[in-house]
Amino acid sequence: MEKKIMLGNEAFARGAYEAGVKVVSSYPGTPSTEVTENAAKYDGIHVEWAPNEKVGVEVAIGASVGGVRSLSCMKHVGLNVAADPFFTAAYTGVTGGAVILVADDNGCHSSQNEQDSRYYGRSAGVPVLEPSNAQECKDYIKLAYDISEKYDTVVLLRSNTRISHSRGIVTLGEKIEKERIPYVKNFQKYVAMPAMAKKLHIAQEKRLAQIAADASGMEYDGIKLNKVEMNDPSIGIITSGICYQYVKEALPNASVLKMGLINPFPLDMIKDFAGKVEKLYMIEEGDPFFEEQVKAAGIELAGGKDMFTIQGEYSANMIRKAFGLEIAETVSIDDAPGRPPLLCAGCPHRGLFHVLSKQKKTVLGDIGCYTLASLPPTEAMDTCLCMGGSISMAHGFEMATESSDHVAVLGDSTFFHSGITGLINMNYNGAKGTVIILDNRITGMTGHQQNPASGKNAKGEEAPAIDIATLVRACGVKNVVEVDPFDIPEVDRIVKEETARDELSVIITKRPCALIVKQPDIPYIVTDKCKNCKMCMKIGCPAIEEKDGRPYIVPDRCVGCGLCATVCPFDAIEAEEGKGAK
After folding, report:
1. Beta-carbon neighbour count of residue 11 at 10 Å?
2. Which stretches does DSSP call E strand in 198-246?
3. Among 148, 163, 427, 559, whose CB has the most other CB atoms within 10 angstroms?
4. How far is it, in rounded angstroms, from Cα 257 to Cα 227?
5. Three-state secondary structure call for residue 164
């Protein structure tokens, strides 16, 4: 059979295709984004970017009720947004198989926290699967649909940054042609009113108990989800996911209980394994999810979190060190050149944040590329809590301080995700603040996914584009103004005027992301008129650096946006004469 080297997320998408999935509805979130992007490449699957994760899960559950296999993908904090439908769907069960894929971010590579999604599976009462390599990514998602339909349950499939973004050899299979299961009206199952929900809860507990009873021997297509690898009985390791790979590298002779089905907990299997080894250790990234359950069962551990850490990612060397073994030679990340996070050259957000910094506004920020504006040299963002939180926080800030010298800032995709309700709340409750929506025509930080204002859908096809200004007015906001963020004098004037208003206002900055439109590519140079005031360096453009004590524009980095020339008070920056596209 054909084999390919695949990213873990590519393998998840391939597995969904082979499993006969018909509907995928997700919101982009690193490290899960590429699953949906790759699913969109397969014919026969309806793939869409939902405005947020809650909507994505609701679409997937609706498709399941309609009789087809469905999938919704998100990062760990996205599961917070989707928790409402997820918990109730855990009661109602499914018709067609339904899988929620969540990718955790141990080490905070691209997130505002380290959250352990295993607790969601345990709290909601659904089975949780966790693969440890790319092949298992493909296999486990197929198994998840079999489990979903066999046990009438939503299944949570857990990945993380290292599994989703590492590559491995994957053996491809054939697509399963799943016929749609005819819809049969059953309000006792699908209408979660109190009288029905009480019975559904009992049914949920029964099926979870059945899964737990079956967990030790659960096997599909020759793949055992939980398996024991007996070697040297002096050391026994219980582990799962990416930590299994680290354990096999660091302790190749140890006996290992590898768990693929991590909820419900295979307690009988663990007790049996514990009786076969002299010392039992628990190695798991994140919280002591397994460890607490093992200790609660009265099983003695020789080591667990006391040997490791709750924070960050593990590694083979970390495990070697914990067991007193020699550390393998590696290249330290400290030896690599520094690469501070910066807004791209030509980024449309830079002009706005230059103005906000100059006016010394308090900026209640949000999650997106523009969060980088909190860093030097602009330092023009004061808070970042969660998707859409900037608007509601700005409202609360206004109520606390009675100040108008602050703004809320968020992107177009974030506004659709969860900013609209906050804006409605501001208008409804008499707020007088200013909200700035940064419309760069794309979902930027996760890699340029489409959104309801971009004019295209997840497959790149033409789609209706929502006009943000019209939507804002429909929310009841009277004062709405649009501006090019590179028109610095106009942005400066508008921000002063709108924040001085005695009623709610919205500013929409409109300029496409520098990476999705053709830039002029005519490099700018610093001429002899330069007075070395270094105002150009305050915009934080990666194309401008200091050379021999003076500003210097690196030609190969400059995209020719001209923002530096706009902010220069001495007209000392000009497009290089005679230069066309590089």
Report:
1. 31
2. 219-220, 223-224, 226-229, 232-240
3. 163
4. 6
5. helix
Cβ within 8 Å of residue 222, ≥6 positions away: none
Rg (CA), the chain: 27
pLDDT digits (tens, 9 = 90+) for 507-556: 999 999 999 888 787 889 999 999 999 999 999 999 999 999 999 999 99
The pLDDT tens digits of the residues spanning 120-173 come to 999 999 999 999 999 999 999 999 999 999 999 999 999 999 999 999 999 999
146/121 Cα distance (integer angstroms): 18
Q: Evaluate whether 389 touches 366 at the Cβ level (below 8 Å).
A: yes
Residue 429, Cβ density class (10 Å: 0-12 exposed, 13-18 middle, ≥19 buried): exposed
Crossing angle of helices 53-65 and 76-92, in 10° steps, is 30
Residue 578: what pLDDT? Answer: 52
CA dist., res. 37 & res. 26, Å (int): 10
Other CB atoms within a 10 A radius of the CB of residue 114 amount to 19
Closest CA to 191 of 79, 100, 65: 65
Q: Is-contact 367 112, C-beta < 8 A?
A: yes
DSSP for 430-441, please give it.
T---EEEEEE-S
Q: Token pair of 123, please?
A: 């709290």
Instruction: Report the alpha-carbon angle 268-271-273, nearest 5.
Output: 110
* DSSP summary character for residue 418: I
SS3 call for 169: strand
Distance between CA atoms of residues 344 and 468, nearest Å: 24
- Region class of 256: left (phi > 0), else alpha (psi between -120 and 50), else beta: beta
Burial of 205 (0-12, 13-18, 19+ CB in 10 A): exposed
Q: What pLDDT was estimated at residue 579?
A: 54
d(CA 108, CA 94): 33
Whether pTM > 0.85 for this model: the answer is yes
Cβ(317)–Cβ(332) under 8 Å? no
